[in-house]
Design goal:
Largest sheet: 10 strands, mixed
Number of strands: 19
Strand order of the largest sheet: 10-12-11-13-14-19-18-17-15-16
Strand content: 25-35%
Helix content: 10-25%
Order of helices and strands: EEEHEEEEHEHEHHEEHEHEHEHEEEEEH
Structural class: alpha/beta
Shape: globular
Distance between the termini: 60 Å
Radius of gyration: 20 Å
Length: about 375
């Protein structure tokens, strides 16, 4: 089955579909070599078409344990070469069947190197992937008319509708995911769900936390009435400026409890502190981005997925830079000058990616211990 990918700037790629359908979104590329199922189910990718730079995708199939949320959130998936028959002892199905079941189009057989170079040069932009409408001019027009991510509140589309408790720890080969007795937890954390990943919650549990996950619009007064030891601000999709209610809620929480933010939570925290954010040309998406921790001098390889960044110069005297991206020197972490508050732009929970930054969950636990 033929598939066509059309970008808003008029560039068109033709290939073959391994999952049918039509989808529109911002086209971005991910440089991870493994972990496509975790990427597909990361809510931060809502509103985006994802191109994998690694050439062979589908080899390990899919399984129910490697999901990061309730369903895949990417709009469409583009690869160089798709493998229909998985070869992995954990596989419970094929990637194509998984995408078809969720109505997500998948495309293979294009020069993904050329596409990635184009995105790097021209920047991320709206695009349409289709097996239904194969007219390039029609698809380019659809891409040009599609709304971008700037100014769109995508958090409302991915956050939980009701609060829930989480007590599952990280996965291991022997026993899979193990439940922990919440009565044995040392800390109680309220986690704001802006598009939270499962492995973030697992790492909080591993750090000794009992976790209550709440919707993105939960009032600050409701959270403080639970009397948590700390507050966590999760990752999520889209423009941080498009969720002013979250910024106001976090502003009211500042100074009340220790706060730890990741990705979109980091950006919302920056806005709540009075700073600004801006859109990156093509964003950071992958599992191999070098980041330097300025508090220790160590360099860690990190997993990343964001299209916006915090302008630390907009927070003079309020917050200081703690982590910097060694590829483009953008902000990767900040901490409050006086209060027990810190955040990072990247994903210390990985899935997929290296575990170099897992210490940040222990740092959060130490912060809560010190401010009880």
């Amino acid at each position: 089955m033929k598939a066509v990918l059309a970008l808003a700037d008029g560039t068109v790629f033709e290939g073959t579909a391994f999952a049918p359908g039509e989808a529109v979104g911002e086209i971005v590329f991910n440089t991870a070599m493994t972990g496509y199922q975790e990427i597909l189910t990361d809510p931060s990718y809502f509103g985006q078409l994802v191109v994998m730079t690694y050439p062979e995708i589908g080899n390990v199939g899919v399984n129910p344990e490697d999901v990061e949320s309730t369903r895949p959130f990417v709009q469409g998936f583009i690869v160089k070469e798709y493998w229909q028959r998985p070869s992995n002892w954990r596989a419970r199905g094929s990637l194509a069947d998984y995408l078809r079941a969720h109505g997500i189009p998948g495309m293979e057989g294009i020069d993904t190197r050329a596409l990635v170079r184009h995105i790097r040069e021209r920047g991320a932009q709206q695009a349409v992937l289709s097996t239904i409408d194969l007219d390039p001019k029609s698809l380019v027009r659809k891409a040009q008319e599609a709304p971008g991510l700037v100014g769109r509140d995508l958090v409302r589309e991915v956050t939980c509708r009701e609060a829930y408790d989480w007590n599952e720890g990280p996965w291991n080969p022997e026993s899979g995911y193990r439940r922990h007795d919440p009565r044995a937890s040392r800390f109680f954390v309220v986690a704001y769900d802006f598009g939270i990943k499962r492995n973030i919650l697992c790492n909080l549990v591993a750090a000794g936390c009992r976790v209550r996950v709440v919707p993105a619009w939960t009032p600050a007064a409701t959270t403080l009435a639970m009397n948590p030891d700390g507050i966590f601000l999760s990752n999520g999709p889209g423009d941080p400026d498009a969720v002013p209610y979250a910024r106001e809620i976090v502003r009211q929480l500042i100074g009340a409890k220790p706060i730890f933010g990741i990705c979109l939570g980091h950006q919302i925290l920056g806005l709540a502190l009075g700073g600004g954010t801006y859109k990156l040309k093509f964003g950071h998406h992958g599992a191999n981005h070098p980041v330097k921790d300025l508090t220790t001098g160590k360099v860690e390889v990190t997993a990343q997925n964001h299209g916006f960044a915090v302008d630390v110069d907009s927070l003079p005297g309020i917050a200081r830079l703690t982590h910097v991206n060694l590829n483009d020197h953008t902000v990767e972490g900040i901490e409050h000058a006086q209060l027990p508050i810190f955040s990072v732009q990247y994903h210390p929970e990985a899935s997929p990616g290296p575990h170099d930054a897992a210490y940040l969950f222990r740092r959060f636990a130490a912060l809560m211990e010190a401010h009880r």
